[in-house]
TrEMBL record:
Stored SMART domains: REC (SM00448)
Residues covered by the Response regulatory domain: 21-139
Similarity-based family: Belongs to the CheB family.
Residue ranges with Low complexity bias: 169-193
Protein name as it appears in the record: Protein-glutamate methylesterase/protein-glutamine glutaminase
InterPro entries: CheB-like, CheB_C, CheY-like_superfamily, Sig_transdc_resp-reg_Me-estase, Sig_transdc_resp-reg_receiver
Residue numbers spanned by region Disordered: 159-199
Highest taxon above the source species: Bacteria
Post-translational modification: Phosphorylated by CheA. Phosphorylation of the N-terminal regulatory domain activates the methylesterase activity.
Domain-level remarks: Contains a C-terminal catalytic domain, and an N-terminal region which modulates catalytic activity.
EC code(s) of this entry: 3.1.1.61, 3.5.1.44
Gene that this sequence comes from: cheB
Amino acid sequence: MSIAFAGNSTTGTSREAGPLRVMIVDDSVVIRGLISRWIGAEHDMEVAASLRTGLEAVNQLERINPDVAVLDIEMPELDGLSALPRLLAKKRDLVIIMASTLTRRNAEISFKALSLGAADYIPKPESTREAAAADIFHHDLIQKIRHLGARLRRRPAVASPPLAPASPAPAARGPVARPVAPAPAPAVHALSSGSPSTRPFSAQAPKVLLIGSSTGGPQALMSLVTELGPVIDRFPVLITQHMPPTFTTILAEHLARSSRRPAAEAVDREPVKPGRIYLAPGGKHMRVARSGADVVIGLDDGPAVNFCKPAVDPLFTSAIDVWHGSILSVILTGMGSDGMRGGKDIVAAGGSVIAQDEASSVVWGMPGAAANAGICAAILPLNQIGAKVNRLFAGDRS
């Protein structure tokens, strides 16, 4: 069935099968052409429209009726951030992926867009003539469209509210926050016989907290660290979030504000100490190693792991040589399976893994891979992970 727009109602609980309809909104004819060709080559998606401005997208949304929109930030007439709330007001479950070049300003805008309802962001290469950068952009964009679109189709259809009568556009171009009702806390249920099995938590007291995340991770991380003050104060916390340079700089600043604790991109050879959050910098893998009596950060510019750089597995596996089985690792929302192999190694060494559950994940790829591998001691909603982590570091082993 189709999504209802203003003045209509929806019936049923699922969407029509068929290719995902993608609306491309970018003032660059080169980028529009590239993305159109990439989408056209995929069997499970199609180009619903290719538009030059955010205003065109807002005005034509009902006619186009896309599932996913790839929305540029910098455009004439109506920029992406200003168009975002207007698009979501017309179709609240439209999956919007923000696209921007790697500047600090655009990174800040992308984070703002996430708070206004964008599903994700993707950095555009500075030049499409750079083959490696274009290949990464191609791979990541198609995966984000596919996985975020698939999640949309698994959810019940949502009727969009009737629109108010048309009125002249306001002079101000700043974003208008879209009110979002708080979601009820998911209940904890015993895993059914068809659900992934869990194992007991390690009997060893954890001495470090490792976190891995990808799609949906920035929002999840900022929520989680608000609850982890007692752990951060006494133990090191190291995070790998799939994210490019500049974006990780901004994320570290947000994590510092959310946690009210020091948080920064890790620096090569710096000592790892309790009381702060270490974030893998974009474009570098973060590992840890012993250096005399100290534990130090190791950054490397090696090849991507699991199509990612930074990747979670290098952090997880390197930590075993330092803390052995005294590791608690958390795998949050994200595409792919990064973290699962490293999590297996942590469990084999005597440590523990917690995975975010499917209902609270934007994409249940990484945590789902860990859960289905049978390596998790708990599979929890995001809003219950912080309390569980605090209890485990306080001595609870249940």
